[in-house]
Every structure is written in C-alpha cells, then in structure tokens.
Amino acid sequence: MMQRPPPEDFSLKETRPHLGGGKVTGDKLTSTYDLVEQMQYLYVRVVKAKELPGKDLTGSCDPYVEVKLGNYKGTTRHFEKKSNPEWNQVFAFSKDRIQASFLEATVKDKDVVKDDLIGRVVFDLNEVPKRVPPDSPLAPQWYRLEDRKGEKVKGELMLAVWFGTQADEAFPEAWHSDAATVSGTDALANIRSKVYLSPKLWYLRVNVIEAQDLIPSDKGRYPEVYVKAIVGNQAQRTRVSQSRTINPMWNEDLMFVAAEPFEEPLILSVEDRVAPNKDEVLGRCAIPLQYLDRRFDHRPVNTKWYNLEKHIMVDGEKKEIKFASKIHMRICLEGGYHVLDESTHYSSDLRPTAKQLWKPNIGVLELGILNATGLMPMKAKDGRGTTDAYCVAKYGQKWIRTRTIIDSFTPRWNEQYTWEVFDPCTVVTVGVFDNCHLHGGEKNGGGKDSRVGKVRIRLSTLETDRVYTHSYPLLVLHPNGVKKMGEIHLAVRFTCSSLLNMMHMYSLPLLPKMHYIHPLTVSQLDNLRHQATQIVSMRLTRAEPPLRKEVVEYMLDVGSHMWSMRRSKANFFRIMGVLSGLIAVGKWFEQICNWKNPITTVLIHLLFIILVLYPELILPTIFLYLFLIGVWYYRWRPRHPPHMDTRLSHADSAHPDELDEEFDTFPTSRPSDIVRMRYDRLRSIAGRIQTVVGDLATQGERLQSLLSWRDPRATALFVLFCLIAAVVLYVTPFQVVALLVGIYVLRHPRFRYRLPSVPLNFFRRLPARTDCML
Known about the structure:
Blueprint: E1 13-14, E2 24-25, E3 28-29, E4 40-50, E5 63-69, E6 72-75, E7 86-94, E8 102-109, E9 116-124, E10 141-146, E11 152-165, E12 175-176, H1 185-191, E13 194-197, E14 201-212, E15 225-231, E16 234-237, E17 249-259, E18 266-275, E19 278-287, E20 293-295, E21 304-307, E22 310-314, E23 317-321, E24 326-334, E25 363-373, E26 379-381, E27 384-386, E28 389-395, E29 398-401, E30 412-421, E31 427-434, E32 450-458, E33 467-478, E34 481-496, H2 499-505, H3 514-517, H4 522-541, H5 549-555, H6 565-593, H7 598-613, H8 618-633, H9 656-662, H10 672-705, H11 712-731, H12 734-745, H13 758-764
Parallel strand pairs: 7-12, 20-24
Antiparallel strand pairs: 1-33, 2-3, 4-7, 4-11, 5-6, 5-8, 8-9, 10-11, 13-29, 14-17, 14-24, 15-16, 15-18, 18-19, 21-24, 22-23, 25-30, 25-34, 26-27, 28-29, 28-31, 31-32, 33-34
Helix pairs in contact: 4-5, 7-12
C-alpha cells in the first residue's frame, strides 16, 4: 500500500541559490565561501588618532569616534584624557541597507552635558575601493580632520574603508549595522559567530580489588564494608563485601566519565554499614586523574596500593590519624573506547578517545548555512512578535554557532564551515534557536534560548562531490501538535579524499574494538551517556559566549529515550513496514499455490524442477536476482537527503492526550485522575504485549515437548516418525524428496482441503507449560 505524500508545507524543497558569487566550474565551485551567497559589506576600520585638541576646561579630551552611514550609527569606546587614542575597531554596514552616498567618521569629546565635535572625515562611497580575499588587508591611512564647514582642523584620524564580503577576515570581529539595537559588551559577544570544541572525554575505570587492615569502631561485630567513589557530580558504590572481615574483597569495576582538563580528583571512601541508615567512614583517599595510567588496548594496567586517611574531631578541629589501612585498586583512563555523548542513532563521531588510535580522515564535510524563511515570532518586544535567530551545527567534537540576526523572520547568515570526516556513517545536526539573552535578558533572569527546529543529515546518504542545496522544514512537536516553525536553507557538500578508504570503512566495526573485546553493559552505557552529556553541556556553558545548556541538550537529543505512545506506535508501524515485503511475498506464494494465474504457476513449477535437478544454481540465481533488483531500483534512487517525516513519526495524527503525556515531566506533574487513566491505558497495552509474549513462549515449549515425554503418546508418535523418516531419506535420493515435497506444496486447489494439515493438528495438541502458570 502506497503512503500518501506528506503535506507540501512539510516537504523538502530543492533550490538553486547564487552560490559563491556565481563562480561555478562544473559541479564544484571556486572560492573560499563557495557554498553560500555573497553578502556585500562596507567595512570601516578605525585604528587611532593623534594630536587631538583639548575641548574641556582642563585642556584635555575624552575622545571616541562615531561612524555614521545614513540612519546607521556605530561608536567606538571612549578614552579618558587622551589625545593619542588607539581603538582598532571595525564596523560593517550591510550594502543592501545603505541609503546614503557618504560615510562620515566623526571624532567627538565625551562630555556630561553634550559631546563636543573635534573633527570629522567624509568619504564618497563611489570612491571606496573593493577588496576580495586572498588580497592583503587594505592599509589604513592618516586623514586630516575637518570641521562642519570642510575646513582643516587640528588632529588626524587613521582609517581604512573598503567594500568586501562576509569572507573578509574582519567580518567575525566587526560591529554590524544589523545589530545596531544591541548595546553592551556582553550582549554584543552573545550575537557573534563562534566555534566551540567539546571537551576531550575519557572513561575512567576503577577496579576495586581489596582493602587491608581496616579499623572499625566496633570491633565486636562483623563489618559490612563497601567502597564509594566520587568524581565531580558522579557517585558510585560497590556491593557490600561478602568476606565480612577487616580485609574485605570486592574485585568490582566502577565506570565514570572524566573530561580534560581534569579538574576534580577521584575521591574514594571505604565505609562500614553499622545500621540500616548509618554508615561509618573507615578511610578516604583522593587521587588526581592527571597522573593515572592511560590504557589504549585490552592489556591490564598494574595494580597499586593506596593509603587510606581518616580524620577525627578533637576540640572542634579536624585531626588526621595516620594508620596502616590500605586499599588495592587498578585505576586507568580508557583511551580505546569512544565516549558516547550523543544518541546512538545520530552519532557524529565514533573515534576512540586516544589520538594515537585515530585513523586518517576519509574526506571533508562543508556546510553553508544560507538563510531561513517564514520563521515564527518567538517572543514579544514592544508589543509585537520578534525573533533573534542563530544556528548551531554539530559534527564530531566541533560545534559552530552563527551570528545572531536581530529582529528578522527571514535571517540571512551565509556562513560556511568545514569538518574533517572520519566515518561516512555519521550525522551532522543543524539547529535553529531564538536568542533570549539580548536587551538585558541576563539581568531579568534571562529566559532560555527557544528551539525553532533542527535538521539532521546522514553523510552516507549523500553522493560525494555533489553540492546539495535544499530548503528544510523546521518541524517542532508541541503539546498541541506538530508545527512548522519556518524553513532553513542549507548547502552541503561531502568531498571524499580516498574512495578506497571510504569503501573499506564499510567493512570495519562502527565502534572502536574495545567496545567488542570488553563490552560495557546497556545500563552502564545509558548511565555513562547521561554523565557525558551533562559534562559537555556544563563545559560549553562556561565558554564565552556560552553555548547554553538547553541548546546543547536539544542538539544531543537528551530525553529522547523517554516513553512516548506516539513514538511506540511509529516504531510498530516501522516494523510492519519492514515485514510488509515478506508478507507480500507470502501472499504471492499463496496465489501461486492456489493457481490464481496458471501460466505463472506452471513457470514456477519449471523453475523449481530446474533448481532441484541443478542445486548448484540456487545461490547464483538468488544473487543474480538481487543484483537485477538493485540495478532496476537505481533509476528511482533518492536524489535528496532524508528529512524529518511527520507521517512516519505519527506526529500529524497523535492524540492531544498522548502528546501531553510525552511532554510531561519525570516524575509526573499531572493530576492523579489523568495519571490513573494513563496508567490503565498502559496496562491494557502491556496486557496485549503480555499475551503475544505468552503465545510465543507456548509455541517454543511445544517444540521442546516433542522429545520431553511430557505427553508420552505424542512423543512416541514423533520418535517413530523420526525413525521412519531417517530410513526413507537414507534410501531415497534427496532430489526426489525435494521434488515430491515441492510438488505437494504447489498442488492444485482440487487436491486441497480446507481443514488444517496433519502436522499442524499434531503440533497444536502438544502440551505447553501454561498449565503450570498461576
């Protein structure tokens, strides 16, 4: 059954933007910024001034420069009492918005009442030169200041003025006319583009072996000793030792996530459970992580004995007791694992932690973030809706953040970024967010940056060296249903440096070999992934400007494992979609057996007889058939990258209550009657699953009972049948048996009965262990 196409509004659209200023050579483009549209800017670099005259009563001046172009005005910082100030600030005015023919750079003296004019320099825009990288930067020149009448006055200003594009080196640090409404150093830092790197993550393995010579306070009882280990916010404990002596043994592994630079030590405490809710510390030790052994393969590191320290309170002061208790451990930083900090299905990096184990890259991913259209208003300002949008893209350890475009529903970024690719079976994620930390947002408690939507692109679905330019719908699920928040326009190119290396990657395991030699349990991986995402979000939040926690968690799909009725339905129908091919083959074979089309059935008979007589043709026939299907489907191969599908996700048909449950907190914050209703619904679904699982168990137990003599008559019949079958198959050629079975299965409906077959009747009568169930 063909699925209906998604609504046009939610579909992917191919575009033809004017990339790289139109310098196209074949399928590749020639220029640094060849995957984005060129944006023209007027750049003004204000370097310094000299010999400025004093304007106030003290004979000194507090100078600053005001750069004015039409309605746009940018100012440098001012200096106290300085006649030779140095600013070295760059201003960028978007050429699209220029509504003047002259640029004015005015030097003013900061004053309490009114700022005094020292002098100015005026430029005719028709005379401004054009600069295109990789040309060297334009050398600034000294210009004599003039008054308003155009007469020369004392003082000179060093400036450089030129037209350029966003490829200019001055672009990232420049003050932008688009952001003229943003004031304050912190707010300006919040709108600039930035590249971030995830911290280098290690798995820390603590193998607690044994302790010796512990001194419990109550020597008359058997101690119940366990070890508690803490790294930063992570805490784990061993089980209570089975050997209840002062020399307990555990031989237990505890796993943690640690990030470079290592800030927190590993703190171990040996504790004795003296009562159900009372533990006594028998000794502690702190181990700095930077001095630990680093392991790159499965060979064990050396064990070490560590001294345990104990403190007691004497007269209100802590005093350390020196005593001979020790703990025996094997501790190492695991460099052979990849620390999973993303959802497994959307991993962007699969390399091990240790750089020595990295293989050379297989290619380069280039991403051009062009623009967005039709964005929804995300917040209210001055009584109207507004959006201050920026993009974040993540691939591997490198995160990028574009500049924020202030108050625009159709922002144009035109920024291009590059990543090294080490595995084609990885995903790049691009998210769009609304910046809520401008206009004093921090002081007002600052809201969280709102999600506008995200796009995922799997590199293995892209053809190499082809530029994909598409407009992706930004779809977000809200408690009241799926909503399109706008569209983002991206250009993507995956360039392969060695086709042979990339093809070889498909034969290698996805994860580093340590994951298979010493695998971690599912619960361990889930716990470690949670810890890794917390560490990454905490470290990126501390960057300047910060990449905020809500942004990092949305990009890393934190919380995607939570229960969702909608997602469960979608996964069930995905399974049915996979099985639909087998079901279709089964129906087709049933039609063959029932002679619906006699000519086809006769041809199948002939093919079957040929394959039985020449069994060496079976495998070549199967592989040739698969080859022909693959070649046939090549004509209809996907030409666009995959994108989020609302119908596949069941987002467009989800019941409001199911969505409300999906957005509920954990633990729940809903009223008890709603929780009771949802619990009962979950029980009914679980009841059906329980029945299906029980039926599967019953069929398996019936198979076991064939030889178990639970039903002596049935087992006797089966054993006798096996003996006769063994004799018959021994004396009869296999080809004759296969031919007879095949012709029997494909027999004409005239020789069929509507009743179930004898083997099926016999199997259904076999006993199962359902009788023993309570």
